[in-house]
């Protein structure tokens, strides 16, 4: 018994020492933000608190000054907004400054040690406070000296619920364009880059979910014990589902995937809800959630909205043939969409802007959080070429960063795993490999730097950041810099109208730093339009077509396009033509505006906005970048030139637009009939632009026939061949001929009566 007791006592001492060590380290950590009179550098160093979330309670702990006999708030400043109070501020004081009410109360209390607490009235910080930076200074006195310390925190966006909806249908096993990498592998790399970029910018209350779809919605096999999990630290939970447990197969139930994602996010006015939806083809599983092009600008063919409360869908698509780009553009412009600049389309045509899925996801991330963080500084598309001795090849890129930036991310995307970021320098200080965090995937490298990390070199963020990329083959790559900026606000757009050939893009932009409008920026818009009309090329070009994926039938236009991607002559005709305009600032409405009129072909247009401000002593130099895709529709269809035929209940035509271009294959699912009983029973896409439509119901009733949301005929369905023009007896010339004929008959009759 004594031995046991002795052992127990020894064990207890070990536990006690461990507990004391833990408490000591805990108290040391907790004391890092206190005012310390023993610090010879008093006033103490500035202390940055973690970001505070708009719409949530404040999480800043109580600040103490051990040994103090008094403490007061000597200043509170808000950016934008200016000084709120100074020397001294009253206690308690409610922060009602800046452009909105923030509902934050500062209170000094005590005896020794004096304590300052921050609390939130009405339970949460006002959601409108997002974008404010709050700086306050506390000054304590211990009877001998004053000691001050300044603290800063940012009020950032509302917390986010985000669900990734990802296509795992059979066609995802196809190669991506003319490369040897499958679409599924490219998606794996793209999601990996996205998650590694998102992770350092995620806030405490952000959540993420994951839904796959093939024949129906498919739940992730691992990592998600609940529909939504905390976004911070979720990289492995998301990317772990691509390790083999999930693989391509089945059909494309796109709508079912979207519905499942919506079911995972309950409505909360204090949270933002987003869906990033990735697909390589239009839906081919009939259901009530059929995703199609709609003239009423909704996501579904029925008139019911996808959601009755706020939600935003950001679509990413692969391929440029047929109706898919139009479907995705329609989704982005719908009531549930993220807006016209929300869509990303990888055309897989081998050109620089065919891009990669990782870049598409990063562009969507910027689009979702462009009024918060992160923001894209710039993107360069280059190739490793410069000899670098034994280190192989190298390229150097320079990014200009503005003031008030504390986090930076540099992403390099390439098909080569061997690429690496070998150096990141600012003002001669090298950060790689000693500082920051480097993460690699098969097709990307992501380097994250937190300038507030303990032990970080004392450099200012503003100025040139020089990044070196190394490799051993002259591989093309894309490098992007992102920054954590809650003060700079911008909005780039081109309206929400259905864009058609001949219709100009009316570009607009706003740029602010806090509440201050920046009026002297240079804002350029680069438009990459197709070299030719893809639908017309597909209609006129012969091809064997790719084999369909078992269980996942693609339209003939997509199959033909996939086959022709291996034809360099065909690809050269599609090479994007780059044009740009510079926007002009108008003081009357504080808008930058400009117009692009070169929309002479239909197809996928890629649009890049780049804003650059002059170097400013207060702001530094601001550079921001945004890239999106959109579909420009064909002009009006000329039914007379389309060779329309109608027999019994079958309508056949090869639609051609008023500019003489064929619409081409791949639009069968976008042909609709709206009539009391007449409806489409079947559509056969012949692959060269001809469609054979079998109708059911009463074809002798009045209705409307549309293609891609454009009405091409209104009248009696069975009379479409002749009915698209007024009957000949309704024309003035018919009755003039009748009148002339009557007059001739009368004259002849009179001559006969009076020879």
UniProtKB/TrEMBL annotation:
Domain of life: Bacteria
Signal peptide: 1-31
Annotated TM spans: 732-749
Keyword Lipid metabolism recorded: no
Domain VWFA intervals: 161-368
PROSITE patterns per the UniProt record, alphabetical: VWFA
UniProt-listed InterPro entries: VWF_A, vWFA_dom_sf
UniProt keyword list: Membrane, Signal, Transmembrane, Transmembrane helix
Record flagged with keyword Cytoplasm: no
Pfam families reported in the protein's UniProt record: VWA_2
Name of the protein described by the UniProt record: von Willebrand factor type A domain-containing protein
């Amino acid at each position: 018994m004594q031995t046991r007791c002795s052992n127990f006592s020894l064990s207890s001492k070990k536990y006690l020492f461990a507990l004391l060590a833990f408490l000591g380290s805990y108290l040391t950590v907790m004391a890092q933000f206190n005012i310390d009179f023993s610090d010879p550098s008093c006033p103490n160093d500035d202390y940055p608190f973690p970001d505070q979330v708009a719409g949530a309670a404040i999480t800043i702990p109580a600040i103490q000054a051990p040994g103090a006999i008094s403490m007061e708030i000597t200043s509170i400043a808000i950016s934008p907004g200016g000084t709120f109070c100074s020397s001294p501020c009253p206690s308690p004081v409610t922060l009602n400054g800046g452009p909105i009410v923030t509902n934050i109360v500062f209170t000094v209390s005590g005896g020794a040690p004096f304590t300052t607490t921050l609390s939130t009235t009405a339970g949460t910080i006002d959601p409108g406070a997002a974008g404010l930076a709050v700086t306050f200074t506390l000054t304590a006195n211990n009877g001998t000296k004053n000691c001050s310390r300044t603290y800063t925190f940012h009020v950032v966006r509302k917390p986010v619920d985000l669900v990734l909806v990802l296509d795992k249908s059979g066609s995802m096993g196809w190669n991506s364009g003319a490369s040897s990498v499958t679409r599924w592998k490219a998606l794996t790399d793209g999601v990996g880059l996205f998650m590694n970029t998102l992770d350092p910018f995620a806030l405490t209350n952000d959540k993420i979910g994951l839904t796959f779809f093939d024949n129906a919605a498919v739940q992730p096999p691992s990592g998600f014990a609940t529909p939504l999990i905390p976004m911070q630290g979720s990289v492995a939970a998301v990317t772990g589902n691509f390790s083999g447990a999930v693989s391509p197969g089945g059909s494309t139930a796109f709508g079912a995937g979207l519905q499942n994602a919506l079911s995972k996010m309950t409505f909360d006015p204090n949270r933002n809800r987003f869906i990033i939806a990735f697909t390589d083809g239009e839906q081919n599983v009939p259901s009530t959630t059929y995703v199609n092009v709609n003239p009423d600008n909704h996501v579904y063919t029925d008139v019911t909205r996808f959601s009755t409360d706020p939600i935003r869908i950001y679509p990413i698509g692969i391929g440029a043939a047929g109706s898919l780009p139009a479907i995705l553009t329609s989704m982005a412009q719908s009531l549930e969409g993220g807006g016209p600049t929300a869509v990303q389309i990888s055309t897989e045509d081998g050109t620089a802007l065919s891009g990669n899925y990782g870049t598409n996801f990063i562009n969507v991330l910027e689009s979702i959080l462009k009024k918060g963080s992160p923001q894209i500084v710039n993107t360069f598309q280059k190739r490793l070429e410069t000899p670098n001795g034994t280190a192989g090849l190298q390229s150097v890129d320079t990014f200009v960063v503005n003031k008030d930036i504390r986090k930076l991310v540099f992403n390099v995307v390439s098909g080569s795993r061997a690429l690496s970021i070998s150096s990141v320098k600012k003002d001669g200080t090298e950060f790689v490999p000693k500082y920051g965090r480097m993460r690699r995937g098969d097709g990307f490298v992501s380097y994250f730097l937190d300038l507030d990390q303990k032990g970080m070199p004392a450099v200012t963020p503003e100025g040139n950041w020089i990044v070196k990329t190394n490799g051993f083959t002259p591989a093309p790559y894309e490098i992007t810099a992102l920054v954590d900026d809650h003060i700079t606000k911008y909005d780039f757009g081109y309206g929400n109208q259905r864009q058609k050939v001949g219709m100009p893009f009316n570009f607009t932009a706003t740029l602010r730093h806090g509440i201050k409008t920046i009026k002297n920026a240079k804002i350029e818009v680069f438009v990459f339009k197709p070299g030719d009309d893809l639908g017309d090329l597909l209609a006129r070009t012969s091809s064997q077509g790719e084999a369909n994926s078992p269980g996942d039938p693609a339209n003939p236009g997509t199959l033909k396009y996939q086959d022709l991607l291996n034809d360099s002559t065909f690809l050269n005709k599609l090479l994007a033509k780059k044009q740009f305009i510079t926007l002009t600032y108008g003081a009357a409405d504080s808008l930058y505006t400009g117009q692009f009129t070169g929309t002479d072909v239909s197809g996928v247009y890629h649009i890049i906005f780049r804003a650059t401000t002059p170097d400013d002593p207060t702001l530094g130099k601001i550079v921001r970048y945004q890239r999106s895709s959109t579909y420009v529709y064909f002009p009006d269809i000329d039914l007379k030139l389309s060779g329309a035929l109608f027999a019994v209940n079958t309508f056949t035509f090869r639609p051609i637009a008023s500019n003489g271009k064929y619409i081409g294959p791949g639009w069968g699912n976008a042909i609709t009939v709206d009539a009391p009983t007449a409806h489409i029973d079947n559509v056969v896409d012949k692959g060269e632009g001809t469609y054979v439509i079998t109708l059911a119901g009463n074809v002798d009733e009045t209705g409307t026939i549309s293609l891609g949301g454009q009405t091409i005929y209104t009248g009696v369905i069975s009379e479409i061949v002749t009915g698209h023009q007024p009957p000949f007896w309704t024309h003035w010339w018919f009755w003039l001929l009748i009148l002339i004929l009557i007059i001739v008959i009368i004259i002849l009759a009179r001559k006969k009566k009076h020879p």
